[in-house]
TrEMBL record:
SUPFAM superfamilies: Carbohydrate phosphatase. Residues 205-334 form the Fructose-1-6-bisphosphatase class 1 C-terminal domain. This is Fructose-1,6-bisphosphatase, cytosolic. Keywords: Carbohydrate metabolism, Cytoplasm, Hydrolase, Magnesium, Metal-binding. InterPro entries: FBPase_C_dom, FBPase_class-1, FBPase_N, FBPtase, Fructose_bisphosphatase_AS. The lineage of its organism: Eukaryota, Viridiplantae, Streptophyta, Embryophyta, Tracheophyta.
Length: 341
């Protein structure tokens, strides 16, 4: 990093400027999306500062409540959820919110209502919160189907209908990765300016990777194709080198690495969790949207992940996402398994 050049770099591409440029390509646009995004960015900045000072501010540890998944909530979970719900409602651009932390969908009161539905995981990677490992916020944005009274149908849409998706990773630096349907761009928070600056323009995932990422602790319960694929990663029979295993246990961090370095991230189904662990609306869909926009792909073990049509807001699905060629390999193993059945 050439700090000298940086210090004199005055033509700053902030995320706000970037989104306004994108918006100017749509003359019909009223600017609602930019306003919505600016409130999501505000939430990310708040959570970033809270995560950074968590240890000092006694934000570490349990909040003493449990969420809809039956998980004990951490103080940071509750705080992050609060901030995003309030920021999204105050944007005046949303009608329904679905959060990993709330059992029911939140229907915004008519006086503050807009046309967008936002699905989000305010703080993903909860098992890593207290040990300072990278965690993140994941979000996806839909437009309500039409101008009737908003219902759950407006969020239980296939992932294909998603207009935009992104995540914000709270790690050694705070990085927001966003797609509005025309490519993927990464922005890093410059704490001295309090601005997200474009640092990773037009992210393209390598076609094939050298890394596989999965919780091997579940291996004994895996289905045939997953077990065969991981075996191939470790003991390739085609003379190629074995892949390296990297698993942080925070989806945002594992997907961010996969997007930049290539390879495959998996949370397959197993005998304990027949539908896998990760939630369709606010984990699987946003990450699959980004992966496809970056030239990769995302598969459930049965179909293209974005073709899924969820029936419940906290529905789970197995997921295999990453470099195009790597996901092709696991698709071939599931297809072979299906042929045998
Ligand atoms: P939370 O949303 O409850 O944090 O769960 C999601 C998650 O932490 C993902 O970030 C991660 O990929 C996965 O669970 C790790 O699960 P496991 O500990 O079973 O490997």
């Amino acid at each position: 990093m050439d700090h000298e050049a940086d210090a004199h770099r005055t033509d700053l591409m902030t995320i706000t400027r970037f989104v306004l440029n994108e918006q100017s390509k749509h003359p019909e646009s009223r600017g609602d999306f930019s306003i919505l995004l600016s409130h999501i960015v505000l939430g990310c900045k708040f959570v970033c500062s809270a995560v950074n000072k968590a240890g000092l501010a006694k934000l570490i540890g349990l909040a003493g409540e449990t969420n809809v998944q039956g998980e004990e909530q951490k103080k940071l979970d509750v705080l992050s959820n609060d901030v995003f719900v309030k920021a999204l409602i105050s944007s005046g651009r949303t009608c329904i919110l679905v959060s990993e932390e709330d059992e029911e969908a939140i229907f915004v009161e008519p006086s503050k209502r807009g046309r967008y539905c936002v699905v989000f995981d305010p703080l993903d990677g909860s098992s890593n919160i207290d040990c300072g490992v990278s965690i993140g916020t994941i979000f996806g944005i839909y437009m309500m189907k039409d101008s009737h009274e908003p219902t759950l149908d407006d969020v239980l849409q296939p992932g294909n209908n998603m207009l935009a998706a992104g995540y914000c990773m709270y790690g050694s630096s705070c990085t927001l990765v966003l797609s509005t349907g025309s490519g993927v761009n990464g922005f890093t928070l410059d704490p001295s300016l309090g601005e997200f600056i474009l640092t990773h323009p037009d992210i393209k995932i390598p076609k094939k990777g050298k890394i596989y990422s999965v919780n091997e602790g579940n291996a004994k319960n895996w289905d045939g194709p997953t077990a065969k694929y991981v075996e191939k990663c470790k003991f390739p029979k085609d003379g190629s080198s074995p892949k390296s295993l990297r698993y942080i246990g925070s989806m945002v961090a594992d997907v961010h690495r996969t997007l930049l370095y290539g390879g495959i991230f998996m949370y397959p189904r197993d005998k304990k969790s027949p539908n896998g662990k990760l939630r369709v609306l606010y984990e699987v869909f946003p990450m699959s949207f980004l992966m496809e926009q970056a030239g990769g792909q995302s598969f459930t073990g049965k179909q293209r992940a974005l073709d899924l049509v969820p029936k419940k807001i906290h529905e789970r699905s197995p997921i295999f996402l990453g470099s195009y060629d790597d996901v092709e390999e696991i698709k071939a193993l599931y297809a072979a398994e299906e042929k045998k059945e």
